[in-house]
Every structure is written in structure tokens, then in C-alpha cells.
Design a protein that fits this description.
Structural class: alpha/beta
Number of helices: 5
Largest sheet: 3 strands, parallel
Radius of gyration: 16 Å
Shape: globular
Strand content: 5-15%
Length: 169
């Protein structure tokens, strides 16, 4: 979870450094404010939006907040993921289900919610993992399963939405 928070912060700063106005989303307001403050200190523009990716209502409210504030959106980055790590017998059903809710389900929901705003020249970036390609999958099976689901959703969206001018990687 710490690595994902760091990746979110790094990605937000990189996009802002290139001139993008960035909506920084996550569960913890203090962390969001810290990232936004850092972006603004460097001259960028950012908006903190508290969001719970396992809740459709929260995702809908998040997209509405971003669109209302910025007047639209051009790029969606899906990076949320609760990690169901461990050997298969040690991964609970609850942890595995949470992995799917926070990863592939949230990714698909956000892609669909943002789709109308991305038509023409939008981009979607979905973060997967090299853990899906490990030689020894011991301890990574459940995590790789949820990340590979994101990879397949990405491939499908690239094929289906490419003709509409939406790049999906």
C-alpha cells in the first residue's frame, strides 16, 4: 500500500510538472493535501479528492467533482489496489475479493465513468504488475490474478475505444 501511495504521488507530480492540472485521489485527506501542497509549491495545479475505490457512489462523486472543477478530463490513471499477497492457502476470501473490488472492478468502473469525457483525444493508463509474469508464482498468485484482470480490461478497452480516440495502456 505504501508503494502504491508513493507511485500515486510520483505520478501526480510528474503530470503536474508537464503542465497537467491534476486531481489527486485517495482515502486519506491528509496525504492528499500533502501531495497537492507539494505540486502547488512546484508551480502546478492540483485538486485533492477523497475517494473510496470500492464504492461506486464514491467513484461517481469523484468523477463529478473533477469534471465540475476542471471542466472535463483528458487522462485517467488507475493505480488503486489493495494487495492480496501470500501463499494461496493464506489468502482469505475477503482479501481476494477486496483485491478484485479495489483493482479490476474499480478500474472498469472508472474507465466507464470517464469514457464520455475522454472521447476524441483522451488517455487511460492502468497500472498492472510484472508479478503476473514471475517464474515462481509462490506467494503472488492472488495478486497476479487481480493485476492480470486489469491487463485484460486494458487490452479490451484499447481495442473497443481506440476508434473513439481514446488511448488505453
Amino acid at each position: 500500500a505504501r508503494m502504491q501511495a508513493k507511485a500515486r504521488e510520483d505520478l501526480a507530480r510528474l503530470f503536474a510538472a508537464e503542465g497537467a492540472r491534476v486531481a489527486v485521489t485517495g482515502r486519506t485527506p491528509g496525504k492528499l493535501q500533502k501531495t497537492v501542497a507539494e505540486i502547488e509549491r512546484r508551480g502546478g495545479k492540483a485538486l485533492p479528492v477523497q475517494c473510496e475505490v470500492k464504492s461506486l457512489a464514491s467513484l461517481q462523486a469523484c468523477v463529478k467533482t473533477v469534471v465540475d472543477h476542471f471542466g472535463g478530463l483528458n487522462i485517467l490513471v488507475n493505480n488503486a489496489q489493495e494487495v492480496p499477497n501470500g501463499e494461496l492457502f493464506n489468502v482469505s476470501d475477503e482479501a481476494f475479493e477486496t483485491g478484485f473490488q479495489s483493482g479490476p472492478l474499480a478500474t472498469m468502473r472508472l474507465m466507464k465513468l470517464c469514457h464520455p469525457y475522454l472521447k476524441g483525444d483522451g488517455s487511460i493508463v492502468n497500472l498492472a504488475s510484472s508479478a503476473t509474469k514471475r517464474w515462481d508464482m509462490s506467494g503472488y498468485g492472488a495478486y497476479a490474478a487481480v493485476k492480470d484482470a486489469i491487463r485484460q480490461l486494458t487490452r479490451a478497452a484499447a481495442c473497443e475505444w481506440g476508434p473513439e480516440g481514446i488511448r488505453v495502456n
